[in-house]
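DM between two lab members

TW: hey, do you still have the NAD(P)-dependent oxidoreductase entry open?
JB: yeah, one sec
JB: this one, 288 aa:
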Amino acid sequence: MKKQRIAFIGTGVMGTSIIKHLLRNDHEVTVYTRTKEKAEPLVALGASWASSPAEAFKNKDIAFTMVGYPSDVEEVYFGDNGLFKTVEPGNIVIDMTTSEPSLAKKIYEHAQSISVESLDAPVSGGDIGAQNGTLSIMIGGDLTTYDKVLPLMKHFGENIVYQGEAGAGQHAKMCNQIAIASGMIGVCESLAYGLKAGLDLPTVLQSIASGAAGSWSLSNLAPRMIKEDFAPGFYIKHFVKDMKIALDESKKMGITLPGLALAYEMYEKLMEDGYGDNGTQALLQHYR
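TW: and the structure you got?
JB:
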């Protein structure tokens, strides 16, 4: 595809790897993050630095945003130095933050009012998926916009699926997080049981990871748990945020999700105990 002029807002664990894929494919990328030092390795690879989202998006074609919380998304788009201050008709904005479906719709509606295209495109696959360019991307918005950006997203995504209208991508990501939340409890309890039984846990994984119990978390995070490697592929503090969104949305829809509620309670306790900046696999600590 032709070279694109891209603004990328947020250079966290996953955003950094995505930006590297864009740079490797010869796109022009300008980055913004609150702490400039975090972006310096990307600048060394050829990215440009901007002092605000608005500056980053000036004279660009597409903006990607991947920040922490819905309040951050709100600020990045609608703030005094937000993207909508320098956006131009025909531009495309793509929010990859896991955020509120209602906020995705708000961004979409405002974008439409100024002749700008908008997608909500949260991802799954963690730091490994971002590094390998194999992320799963769930997209909400107009199908025509999806078709335009699909070649670009293939630089860092493998399973890129159009889910429906604005907000549908975020709802699909909630389904993803709900499945992970209860699944992580199962993975941790499996390891706790095996350890108590005196089994060699890597050997146990050889048997169960490729069978009916298999999951991404079991294959990718259980080995980290065994090594007591709790470095973040995805922060607990962000997972707690996601689960809270899912619980709020389920309440609005009149459904009860007890498995999700239990996982939320357990992860909140880990937050209180100071594990918020660890990866989600640190749930194992709950069993110790």
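TW: got it. The chain has a mean pLDDT of 96. The first strand starts at residue 5 and ends at 9.
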